Amino acid sequence: MKNYLAQVLKVEEIVEDFKSETVNFWFKEELKKVFVKGYFLSPRQRQCWNELNEILKITEFFGIDCLDANKSAMEKWIDYLRNPKDYAGELDVFYSMTSRIKEVFQDAKKELGKKISLLEIDEEKRLNEALNCYVQELNYSSIVMSISAIESRLFSLMILKQPSTKLEKLTLGGLIGEYLKNKKKYGNIIPRKHLPLLKYCSNYRIFSVHPKKEKINRLNATAVLCMTCSFLFDKELKAKLEKRVIIVYK
Q1: Which of 95, 112, 75 has the alpha carbon at shortest distance from 18?
Q2: Separation of alpha carbons 30 and 20, rounded Å
Q3: DSSP labels for 5-32?
Q4: What does the domain layout of the chain look like in residue ranges?
């Protein structure tokens, strides 16, 4: 399983690896004759290209303006890098494309780091697994793991307000039902903007595990993962958990 939450912070390194391999493989004088016979990526180029392409698939879930604004352009740049024949003999154009990709992720890196740092260890593992499933287009599995990450955060917040062994025995559906029926009891700890998400996730968890009557498609998986990340990357919710840590260590 790939660690996309780590890879997204290392795009600059991946681009540099791709660039170095390309220059060594394609732009050596003795290899230019290969252009006449065919064009292909070396194994290392292919590995780097796949990493970049997969990372691009998950950028929308972070809600970062510069990544969203440049996604269409980056799709074109990364597609360009897939075909050596497009940049054979045009090293300046190749450098321009790789530099643009690096610049976008350099602009986003600080904010990406801040958002990823908001995750608890268990949440990070579950979200990363959801991203792996999403990239592989395993839509049912992506939804299950997305909602599993939400369950972890929801449980932590609820037990912060009402420490009880009762909560430990509840399923996600039970946790959501318990919270929605007793919001005041739990100090309205979940912001109003996330309440529709809880209901939505409860339903889609059932559909994903028992898919006979309801089919899950790519749009469903994308929507659930987007809302999951919005929930997990909420600084207000993380701040509440930080208070929990302070209380424990006092």
Answers
A1: 95
A2: 17
A3: HHHTT-HHHHHHHHHHHHHHHHSSGGGT
A4: 4-116, 121-249
pLDDT digits (tens, 9 = 90+) for 116-147: 999 989 999 999 999 999 999 999 889 889 88
Per the structure block, which two tokens stand in for 83?
Answer: 């075909």
Alpha-helical regions (H) of the chain: 4-7, 11-26, 34-37, 43-58, 65-81, 84-87, 91-116, 121-135, 139-161, 165-168, 172-181, 195-209, 218-232, 235-249
- CATH T-level assignment (fold) for domain 121-249: Four Helix Bundle (Hemerythrin (Met), subunit A) (1.20.120)
Mean pLDDT in the chain?
85
What is the total residue count of the chain? Answer: 250
Q: What is the pLDDT of residues 158-181, one digit of tens each?
A: 888 888 768 888 877 788 888 888
